[in-house]
Amino acid sequence: MTNARRKILLAMLGNLGPPAAAFITAPILAQSLGVFERGQVAAGGAPLMLVASAATLGMPEAITYFVARSGGADAKRSILRATGLVALAGVLATALFIALVPLLSGGDPDVEALILISLSMVVPSLVLLVLRGAAAGRGRWGLVTVERMIGSSVRLVAVAVLALTGTLTITSATVVISVSMAVGLIAYLALLRPKRPPHPEPPPMRELLRYGGRVWFGSLAGILLSRIAQILVVPLSNATELGLFVIAVSIAELVLVFNNAVRDVYFAEESRDPDMKRVASAARLSTLITIVLALAVAVVSIWGIPLLFGPEFGPAVVPTWLLLLAIVLGNPGSLAGAGLSALGRPHLRSWSLLVALIANLVALFLLVPQLGAVGAAVATAVGNVMAAGLNLWWMRRVGTDVSAGEFLIPQPGDLRALTSVFAKFRKRG
């Protein structure tokens, strides 16, 4: 895996785009709209992310897995089949969520209108996810980075221009955020051009559906685990608490950049030639880096949140700390989940996420009415710990030669490896 570091760096740059854009635009949105209206925008956009995940049917991961196993063979027909399938599922899911709009909006007519705007981008977002999966399977991380940077740039520039011209409203903000989730689709059009000479036949649709089905319910549970709080805080509490929670999420997600890059690259790479020792080593290194980043962000957030977002957002500091803790605790299990998927056992990761989602939902209903944003953050931590622990347990159960300790406990050579990684990245920079 001689190119692993380069691929991780490219994936990390791509992963940095969306949270960086969210973080940079967060003070603009917060100061232009205020806590309550910022919460309305969050409530309006949350269903888009939920529906876009629910309707994937596991196709993005299935495309990544089979393209990676075939060594990057031409997957045009598989991509077209998967795209048509998720587009149909997206239309049906959108119709269902439109019927649920009065419930999801908490009875707020402004939020109802915002939800309808965001749902219009479901199908384009689904197509983008399938094409991103194909690019990952081929190791085209540069293309993935370009796609994510396009979406991030559109969001950043549009929000800034609207704010400067005095036209940043809850409606215009929702339109920009929704469109930015799908506009990067144009970066992947080259994937649909077939290669010459012809490559072996792509996997039959039934194989894509079989693998995708085992991934799908876990992907749905995973997105619910990370986003359901943003949907339920308004009905369970109010838009002000959601405004605080969204700020905490936008800050904490910056720390996820490195972990997500390592997870995505190792899923694609290990699908070709699985070695769980490598995955465990990557998990330890990723956790060490995540701890350092989380501590730095936690310290800066004490004065940074009131300074950047305004004093009324000061209560977002504690939820931010709790979300940072959730990220650190969930990091080793996240890599273990990628390892399970690479071994052809994605259903085990899916079961972990489903159980974690149930724990998260119970915690949300118990804590959010009394604690608001803090309760939502605690519930997120509960879910992350549950998912991570179950992934590590499954890793041992499937008969691999690695233990949970190898994912969790730093080894003597980890610090040297970490120093080497930073040194090589610094030289390339």
What is the strand and helix layout of this fold?
Blueprint: H1 4-54, H2 59-69, H3 76-104, H4 109-119, H5 122-137, H6 141-164, H7 170-180, H8 205-236, H9 239-252, H10 256-272, H11 276-309, H12 317-342, H13 346-371, H14 373-397, H15 404-408, H16 414-428
What's this entry about, in short?
81% of the residues lie in helices and 0% in strands.
What does this structure look like?
This protein is an all-alpha fold. It has one domain. Helix content is 81%, strand content 0%. It has 16 helices and no strands. It has helices at 4-54, 59-69, 76-104, 109-119, 122-137, 141-164, 170-180, 205-236, 239-252, 256-272, 276-309, 317-342, 346-371, 373-397, 404-408, 414-428. Helix 3 (76-104) packs parallel to helix 8, helix 4 packs parallel to helix 7 (170-180) and helix 12 (317-342) packs antiparallel against helix 13. The longest helix is centred in the N-terminal third of the chain and has 51 residues, at 4-54.
